Every structure is written in structure tokens, then in C-alpha cells.
Amino acid sequence: MALVAARDLVQKKHALLRNFPVIGHARYLLETIGPELRQYVVTSNEEERPFSRDQRTWIYASAKEENNYFGFGTDVDVEHVQGHAYVKQRTFAGTLPDLHDPQAPLPSAKVLGGPRGRAKAFRPASVVNISAMSFGSLSGAAVTALNKGAALAGAMQNTGEGGLSPYHRNGGDLVLQIGTSYFGCRDEDGTFNLDKLKDVVAGAPVKAIEIKLSQGAKPGLGGMLPGAKVTPEIAEIRSIPVGKDCASPSRHTAFHDVDSMLDFVELLATETGLPVGIKSAVGEMSFWQELATLMARGDRGVDFVTIDGGEGGTGAAPLIFTDSVSLPFRMGFSRVYGTFAERGLTDDLTFIGSGKLGLPENAATAFALGVDMINVAREAMLSIGCIQAQKCHTDKCPTGIATQDPWLGRGIDAPSKATRAAVYLRTLRKELLKVSGAVGVAHPALITTNDIEIMNGDYDARTLASVYGYKDGWGELGPELAQEITALLTAKPAPLQKPAG
Cα torsion for 78, 79, 83, 88, to the nearest 10°? Predict the structure, then answer.
């Protein structure tokens, strides 16, 4: 202690330690464990962000197949919490699927790529899928657990922009994301290489391709992978030099405007046969207006649009981008949806939402606004053991999920964590079926903007349609799609036939 005191007195970096040697270290210790103290000691069950204690508890219990009910009433101040959503149940309902079957299917109401006649169009088996998280931002063990969990739950996993790694090849179907650096399908100078993309697609269970324009946590900002993290394994997957800094550009080089982007989309779809879509956060609207206008012609178009809310998370981002760049999900999505709805295009493409939608209330609200599927990221991380330590950007994730440290990564037992991820995905689907049943419809995509109200100040609430300016019919499936998905979910299995004689 004398040596520590002497060092503190002579060092010049920390004024606190010069003035209060030894005991001043207590302040830094408390600062280090501040997130944990706030999680478990200081805050109320509904107070903490980004996920409250109640929300984390629900995810943990759901993933472990434990009792995820809550007793003695709500912690929410129901008449005063601004922005809280309330679902309006119906007294009577038509035919509903079995709401108590834990294995009940919940497929997408739309065929992905069907309206544009893609060769490999398909109906996604799950409306809940795992969002884009790259190997590099997540450890290999975490990616493995999530991919195996997706396979067990019949869901898909998005690779993220870091390329398709060996950890993505554990049985789960994939959505291959292409970012601005074209990792895994690029030439040495960083330009896009179509032949490499086709090789990647041919060698893995890739069901669709997603072109990432931006993400909610850091839209319009290219990433930086320090050279120290560019291991031989990551370098091979991403087709970049070992040990050198890798800076991703903020914009694509394979196209430069909406018109050339649609040409690029059609090229990828023609060469691979796969549905092709885009992912973006929402800022200025001229991009979306031009995209919808060009798609209205009918000759070119994206098969799906993934909208990421500004509240979405990532491993690391500047504070101003995390807090203040791009619109929150509900606001951003409603504007994009309305742009396509004005042109009568909403049945012609699949809408995917992401940004804290892995909770039943948020997911149900998203479906009412017009989402067809949701992607979950941080909620999936919580299901495999994330404790919201908020150390993703330091490479010191204590649970081994958001790190490349081999010692920390070994803490994840992929097989058992895969089961937890799968159970969480199934439970969320089951909760969505229950909410849909309460509203009196067979599928969450059939929930409308008039079925949910948003608190708008003390003792006042407005429907989603009113809050977000939706016109009659917006957010709803067309009659044919609605009838098709209802019939699919409520069809009775054919009775077994006894053999003759």
C-alpha cells in the first residue's frame, strides 16, 4: 500500500489519485462495476436501458424454459408512461391455431422473392430470425451457438457484413449480408467480385442476400477493424491482409445511386436465383421515395426491405451515432412503409424490422405497423448468456460473446447455449401467437394499427394509425395474403389412414 501511495502521489495523470492516494482507486473500481450495480442494486425493474431488468428476466427465463410469468401486477405506471403500447383484445374470434402448442409453426405471411419470380423464392418458416452479427464482432463460439439455435428453431441467421465463416456452417439457414467492404466476395483492391459471391452462395445454405446500406447504431459510418484483431482466420474469411487495419468505407462502390443499386440487385438475383433485399436505417426520405417510384414501374425491385431502428445496438459506435443519428424504429419504419403504400406496393415485397423487437410488445407493435418478419440481435445474445455488461467495444466481454479473446470465448458451451437460443426463438413466436389470438386473428401480421393504442400523455391514448398517420388499410395484408396465411395456420392435419385389410 505504501508503494501504491507513493506512485499515486508522484503520477500526474489522475488528479484524484494525487490528492487522495490509495483510497482514490475506490472511485475507479465503482465506475468499472457501475453497469452491474445499476442492473442489480440501484434501478427499478422497468428503469434501466437499453433493456430493463424485467425484459432481461423474461428473455433469460424464456431461454431456459423456466416460468416466464410475472406476479402481483405490472411495474409499469399504466396511465402515465408516455409511448407505452396497449393491445386491445377482442371478445370474439374466428378460427385460431393451437395457442398452447410450443412447437406451433409461425411462418411468414409472404413468399420471399415470390412477387418478382425469383428462382429460389421461398416462404420463411419463422417470422422471428437472428439479425446481422458478424464473426469478429461476436466470438466464434457465440456465432456457432446462434447458428445451431437457428437450426433447432427452424429460423434463419444473418451472417453480418463480416463474411460467411465456418461458425455459420452448423446447420442453420443463412441470409448472406454484403456490406460496403464486400467481405468474402471482394478483390484485393476491395471491389466487388461476383464470381466469389457465387462460390460462397454455392457452398453454404444461403437462402437470401441482403445488401447493407446502413445500420441503426451507426448509419452512414464505416467500421474499423484494428490490425491486431485481423487474425489469419478473419483475414481468410474477409479476404483482407493479415495484421493490417481494415477500414470499411461509408458508402458502396458497386453502385452510386438508386437506379444503379436496382441494377445491382437484379444482377445478384439473376446470377444466384436468390431473393435480394436491402437493409438500412432511416434518415432522409428522398432515397425511399425514388426507390418506390422506380419499383412502381415493375421491371426492377428489391424482394425485401430490412429497416433498422436508431435504437439498434452494435459492438461499438460513437456516442452521437448511438444516441442521435437515424430515426427510432417505429417512426422510421412507418415513414418507409407509407412511401410504398402510397404506390400500392406493400404486398409485393417483404418488410423486416429490427431494433429491440425481440420483446413481445415491441414485436406486436411492429407487425401492426406492417412488418412481415423481425430480426433479433441483442435479445439473441441475452438468450445465450449476455449480461448487458456494455463492454462490447472493449473486447473484454465477460461472457465471451462479443470478444475475440480465446480465454473469454471458451466460457460459451455452444451446444447448451444453442438450445437456449432455440427455446427463446420458439417462446417469442408462441407469445406472438398468443397476442394474435387475444386480438382475434390467426397471425401477428393480421394485427392492425387500430388494434394497438399508444399512451400520449396522462390518461390519453391514440391508435397506431393516428400516431403515425396511417391511412385505411395501411399496415394490413391484402385479402388474398390474409386468407392464405389464415388457412395455412388453422388447417387441420389429415387423419391417419389405416392400412387396408
Answer: 70
